[in-house]
């Protein structure tokens, strides 16, 4: 365990030690700065671009991954797990670009304990300033017997060989490190787990990650597992213990916190807690638990720039097309909303009567500048920068044109409108199809008919169709032009701002040859937004086909 702060009172146990919230907040603010010299750092390893990207329908294209990686660097995560390079050429390219273009964090690539995986992982990250190969194999009986079909001895040897090979590849790079994960550690026999951890450290792994792959253990149990590893693996002091928890029982954050208290110094986590099945440890929750309860977790700190938490949560949510539940801790829309009269009264009198975190500390901010049709490009760029977007001079022209159209209709353009424009406009996929115009004839006594004009490589093509409603008619008309039959799996519309002139944002999921593709479109006209979402999905599919 790290050094304890002996001069501070123990704030947990006795009634005498009970502090008012205000005193506690003050204590936390002061000790946060002072204690960095005596407390230990918990490394934040973000796996949004790998574990969360495995969420069905959340697949990102290269530019989207790069944007998220740059934002993770701004958030000051210590390690970005950028992908699984052997899994596809697209992933290999994305990890390579991130390694070359993102400065600050270590860039990590995942690999099974297979030579070609490790070669691909190293090939993608070798030019990063601080590359990390993360190699893993299932060590639990069920994984050995049903997945790798290997004996304990063979599994152990595969792990040692993989770490040795990863070490040899990266030996010439001064900043390179190797991490090893015994997958499904929570269900692995203890003595065997010790053996695997010891042998992989001896082979050169300097980070041993203990994955709670299926979210099986409960906090006290998982904490004990980490303490047992610390006590029973003779060379454990030559490595950092990391944890990687899944949320199948809703315990990922609790398990990670317990692990920290028992010796883990790296936590693998994702933005918004996204990830396989029920997701992973939520970065925002683990970071804010340590920071907010500095009185309790006085031995630990992270380097996260918490003001970027809400901006990156929004970015990941919109890019992956997965909305954040309103009551989600820290980043949900209701996380700082007070509805009962008693709570509102309390917060007005003193904020911390019902708020344990200052919303501004995690980047919640109301728009200070409301843009109007009279706002110029500079004001627009300034606001976009404040929202976390960096735009090139070419992009700003396109966005400004779009902004003016919305501003003319709405008179006031809020942050949510700008975010909808950005989601819609700054799509990095080449637009093989582009909606130029749309016209709808609809009513209660006639079949709705929609006519669309779509720019294609052959010029603008017009098509019309009737349908069950104007949106269905629009989709059928677009199908006639694009000739890519799609299966619409989900259609979602939400107003991003209030009022009857609100921007409507449509998110759809379509299926194409086993791929789930997300399409987004935004407009003050919901039929136009729907058509744009459909065309956006089609463009993604065309792109995917080119890549394959
Ligand atoms: O959940 C898991 O075990 C993983 C490993 C690859 C670390 O994601
Ligand atoms: Zn995982």
- What would CATH call the class of the largest domain? Alpha Beta
The amount of helix comes to 40-55%
CATH superfamily of the largest domain: Aldolase class I
**Total beta strand runs:** 16
Mean pLDDT: 88
For this structure, the CATH topology of the largest domain is TIM Barrel
Major sheet: order of its strands?
A: 2-3-4-5-6-7-8-9
- The tally of helices reads 17
- What bound compounds does this protein have? 3-methyl-2-oxobutanoic acid, zinc ion
Number of separate domains? 3
So what's the overall shape? globular
Oligomer: single chain
Corresponding CATH architecture of the largest domain: Alpha-Beta Barrel
The main sheet comes to: 8 strands, parallel, barrel
What structural category arises from helix and sheet content?
alpha/beta
Enumerate the spans where pLDDT stays under 50 for 5 or more consecutive residues: 1-19
Termini separation? 49 Å
What is the CA-atom radius of gyration, in angstroms? Answer: 26 Å
User: What portion of the residues fall into strands of 2 or more residues?
Assistant: 15-25%
Give a short overview.
This protein has 548 residues and is an alpha/beta fold.
Protein described:
Helix content is 41%, strand content 19%. The protein is of the alpha/beta class and 548 residues long. The protein has three domains: 31-320, Aldolase class I (TIM Barrel); 337-424, no CATH class; 427-547, Alpha-isopropylmalate synthase LeuA, regulatory domain (Double Stranded RNA Binding Domain), CATH 3.30.160.270. The protein has an eight-stranded parallel β-barrel, surrounded by nine helices. α7 links the parallel β6 and β7 (207-212). α9 (252-261) packs across α10. The longest helix is centred in the last third of the chain and has 22 residues, at 526-547. Bound molecules: 3-methyl-2-oxobutanoic acid and zinc ion.
